[in-house]
Amino acid sequence: MATTDSSTILFRNTMRITDGHLDSFRHAITQAVTFAQHHGPQLMVEVFIDEERMLAHSFQLYPDSEAIRTHWQLSDPHIREVMKHCTVQHFEVFGTPDPDIITALKTPDGTPFPFTTSPRLTGFNRLTTPNTPTAHP
Question: Which DSSP state fits 52?
């Protein structure tokens, strides 16, 4: 079986939406995703909401660890706004980010949250990844 090299990293964030904050959470997460779409380095961002259980699931695909650092630097105000309306229930990292990324996995105020990591074994994607970021001014 051939294994291809890849620096791709996928985050899955399961958030518990605070009671009474559903509309505010929706607004904040929509603003954050819109910002990331226009300025962020992510290859993909998808958010799903289970209103019945008040859970949200966010998937973010990055080309590498440097893109995660860039996202955190650019998006900190948006992340903080989202976190006013939820708590991280569980965070999953798929791939092998640099050690400093793992060390930095905390809420914007520094609170740690549970997470797991799963190194990549094999796979492929059909996403096109240009040599330059797709961010828009």
Answer: T
